[in-house]
Amino acid sequence: MTETFIPSPLDRASKFYVAGHRGLVGSAIWRKLESEGFDNVVGRTSAELDLKNRESVFQFFEQEKPRYVALAAAKVGGILANNTFPVDFLSENLRIQTNVIDAALKHGVERLLFLGSSCIYPKLAPQPLKEEYLLTGHLEPTNDAYAIAKIAGILQVQAVRRQYGMPWISAMPTNLYGPGDNFSPTGSHVLPALIRRYEEARLAGAPSVTNWGTGSPLREFLHVDDMADACLYLLENYDGPEQVNVGVGEDVSIKDLAHMVADAVGYTGAIEWDTTKPDGTPRKLMDVSKLSALGWKAGIQLEDGIRSTVAWFREHQDDFRK
């Protein structure tokens, strides 16, 4: 594209490919697009299309020719998985995003949104995390392979902009939660892990629940439906090479979070803390002033989001990811 690009509402009738549409973020983007009147949204399960297979990805784009793409597909996991299988997280994510981006470029995708992660920022970066902190320091060692893959995706989008002038963009979400989350005992993040723990304690009539650490670390949580809303907003209102942080701009202590979850599930036992266990990073908060200046802010309050996620968890206990 040689003319100056001005972001505007996307054509609701044009084909929109959501890569990773079964995942936490991708499924939320799909719901958002359908609610906004997009009637030509396409997706493929990993069984139908292996995004690590370059030939298959190019064949898919040749056949479907989407006008818009949200790249939400990724191999994801918690600290243990990232630390144990760094080759898998680096190699698989590099292949997924490189194949999709290269195929999208070849077939002239007009707008592409690449989704990253807050772990792209240096381990010791000042809080809150600003977009400009990218590549200014060492990464957290336990998930550096995953982070490097995501950084490569950001740089590839920037390279496409420089070399071909395509108005593609990247967004970096904070900690996400909501319908479709991973509630497994070994692979879940803190909020879904707490929901499962307190719900099981309520059902068992356990007199107390013990959590790791002191409960003092501060974390930011964004409902995935807000994230999906921000993705569409950015596609229609933002064009620039720099990734955009997506969050609520506020954090909460793990101790307060535990009490919110206990209240939401109706657990009335004691909440205890094993201070011999590690706390992790003291604080992780995204600076969302760039997104706020564009005119967007989160709309789902944390307490409301937790309650709705608890309801979803209860409805899907027989089929959620183990």
Task: Describe this structure as you would to a colleague.
The protein is built from 10 helices and 13 strands. It has 322 residues and is an alpha/beta fold. It has a domain at 16-177 and 221-248 and 285-300: Rossmann fold (3-Layer(aba) Sandwich). The strands form 4 sheets. Strands 2-1-3-4-5-10 form a 6-stranded parallel beta sheet, sandwiched between helices. Strands 11-8-13 form a 3-stranded mixed beta sheet. It has helices at residues 24-35, 54-64, 79-84, 86-106, 144-164, 190-204, 224-237, 254-265, 289-293, 302-315, and strands at 16-19, 41-42, 68-71, 111-115, 169-173, 175-177, 208-212, 218-219, 221-223, 244-246, 252-253, 270-274, 283-284. The model has no long low-confidence stretch (mean pLDDT 95).
Q: In summary, what is this structure?
A:
With 322 residues, the protein is of the alpha/beta class. Helix content is 41%, strand content 14%.
Which terms would index this structure?
322 residues, alpha/beta, Rossmann fold, 6-stranded parallel beta sheet, 3-stranded mixed beta sheet
Q: What is the chain-wise order of helices and strands?
A: EHEHEHHEHEEHEEEHEEHEEHH
The residue ranges in which pLDDT falls below 50 over 5 or more consecutive positions are: none
- The CATH architecture of the domain at 16-177 and 221-248 and 285-300 would be 3-Layer(aba) Sandwich
Beta percentage is 5-15%
How many helix segments? Answer: 10
The count of β-strands is 13
Shape: globular
Could you please say which CATH topology of the domain at 16-177 and 221-248 and 285-300 applies here? Rossmann fold
**Order of strands in the sheet with the most strands?**
2-1-3-4-5-10
Helical content, roughly? 40-55%
Assign the CATH superfamily of the domain at 16-177 and 221-248 and 285-300.
NAD(P)-binding Rossmann-like Domain
Largest sheet: 6 strands, parallel
